[in-house]
Write a structure and sequence with these properties.
Elements (H helix, E strand, L loop, with lengths): L10 H18 L6 H28 L10 H8 L4 H14 L3 H9 L4 H14 L1 H6 L1 H10 L2 H15 L1 H13 L2 E4 L9 E4 L2 H12 L12 H19 L8 E4 L2 H5 L7 E3 L4 E2 L1 H9 L4 E4 L2 H9 L6 H11 L14 E5 L14 E5 H8 L4 E5 L2 E5 L13
Parallel strand pairs: 3-6
Antiparallel strand pairs: 1-2, 3-4, 4-5, 7-8, 9-10
Bound molecules: zinc ion (2 copies).
Length: about 400
């Protein structure tokens, strides 16, 4: 009997016992030889999903989930199997469609077809009918072998379109109706962005971001951080190209004290909400091409006197001299660089070539906000890391 704990208990007990052993066995393998076991682990998960699907279908039919007080098998899966609503509905869909798609079911059960491919085939069957899918099942399964799930979406959508162009159009139109983009109010120094793009919008955005996604040498940014930076870069360049001359896209209201970095000064206020620390105001003010600073009378007065704007001829000379970001090892090109004042203009540093340096946004930020020092000696730039790393967590409350 299962409950006796005997080694030959139920299949589930044997699987769990094997899972108990698995980490120890894996830990004895050297890192380089983990590839094959990882593939096999995914295969085991996929085969488990195939078995799970069959069980879900039978359990749904039995109606026994009601005994637990659940109103539907989806509700039961969410509650008892810790699935999200979408994940539960997907599994139920798979469970029902597989019954009508014998080749897909067999390939799933044997582990040759992965869960994500199966989910796509089931969704296609839901859209155009299992009968249509069954007629093309071999071709679809073959395509699944050579296309990863992301690519297989296209295969499945093409197939749907061939079977039912009108339905595909309706679906695309419904999807288009659901599009939205929400930009939150600044909270804790962050703005939440969320949304659903239609397929065309998504592809357009992805394509546009791609141009700015290349990691630089020894890039420590995560994929998400690079994607964030790419989006901002895209917006910046867009407005740089607009109209005659650059239009400031960022308007910051700041006091003279903030600009001078005097302690006790207020933060800079972003038009449209949110504040930024003085160091950030200073960075933006460093190359005025992109930012307009506004403030009380004294600031306006100071701004009109300081020659902080880099004249076009100086900018051209700067670009000719530096050619890319001057940080050692950084090769981000001109169009992704700001002109940085080595001696801050509000402290009397002139806007002339010897006092300027091209810095990419990342390195410009490191200099102003993260405590790095940039100096020029004998025509060479030298960047020194901060003695104390400036991190948000080190800020006292
Ligand atoms: Zn600067
Ligand atoms: Zn750089």
């Amino acid at each position: 009997m299962a409950a006796s704990g005997d080694r030959l208990g139920t299949p589930l007990e044997r699987i769990k016992a094997a899972l108990d052993d698995l980490p120890r066995w894996l830990s004895r393998l050297d890192d380089a030889s983990l590839g094959e076991p990882l593939i096999e682990i995914r295969g085991v998960i996929d085969r488990s999903e195939a078995i799970f699907a069959d069980g879900v279908r039978r359990f749904d039919k039995s109606g026994e989930y009601k005994a637990d007080g659940a109103l539907s098998v989806i509700a039961w899966l969410k509650w008892k199997c810790k699935l999200s609503g979408g994940a539960a509905a997907e599994r139920l869909e798979i469970a029902h469609q597989l019954q009508k798609l014998p080749k897909t079911e067999a390939a799933f059960a044997s582990g040759t077809l992965g869960y994500e491919h199966v989910a796509l085939i089931a969704r296609t069957a839901d859209h155009v009918g299992a009968a249509a899918v069954r007629q093309a099942e071999s071709t679809l399964l073959q395509a699944a072998q050579t296309h990863d799930p992301g690519q297989f979406v296209t295969v499945a959508k093409n197939f749907e379109h061939r079977i039912d162009a009108e339905g595909a159009l309706n679906e695309a139109n419904r999807a288009h109706e659901r599009r939205y983009l929400h930009l939150g109010e600044p909270q804790g120094g962050m703005v939440r962005i969320d949304g659903l793009l239609d397929a065309e919008g998504g592809a357009t955005l992805r394509g546009a971001l791609q141009a700015f996604m290349k990691p630089s040498k020894s890039d420590e940014r995560t994929f998400g951080q690079r994607q964030h930076d790419a989006l901002i870069e895209l917006c910046r360049q867009r407005s740089q190209r607009d109209g005659a001359g650059p239009r400031p896209q960022l308007i910051i209201r700041a006091s003279l004290d903030t600009l001078a970095g005097i302690s006790g000064a207020p933060a800079g206020e972003l038009e449209g909400g949110g504040t930024v620390p003085a160091a950030t105001v200073q960075r933006y003010a460093c190359d005025s091409a992109l930012t307009r600073l506004t403030g009380r009378g004294e600031l306006e007065h100071e701004l009109s006197h300081a020659t902080r704007t880099i004249p076009p001829s100086t900018r051209r000379a700067l670009e000719g001299r530096d050619r890319h970001c001057v940080f050692a090892g950084c090769d981000r090109p001109l169009n992704r660089c700001d002109g940085h004042h080595l001696v801050w203009w509000i402290k009397g540093g002139p806007t002339t070539l010897p006092n300027l340096a091209l810095l990419c946004r990342r390195h410009h930020r490191m200099v102003h906000e993260e405590g790095w020092t940039l100096a020029r000696k004998d025509g060479r730039f030298n960047a020194t890391p901060p003695s104390r790393r400036v991190m948000p967590s080190s800020r006292s409350a």
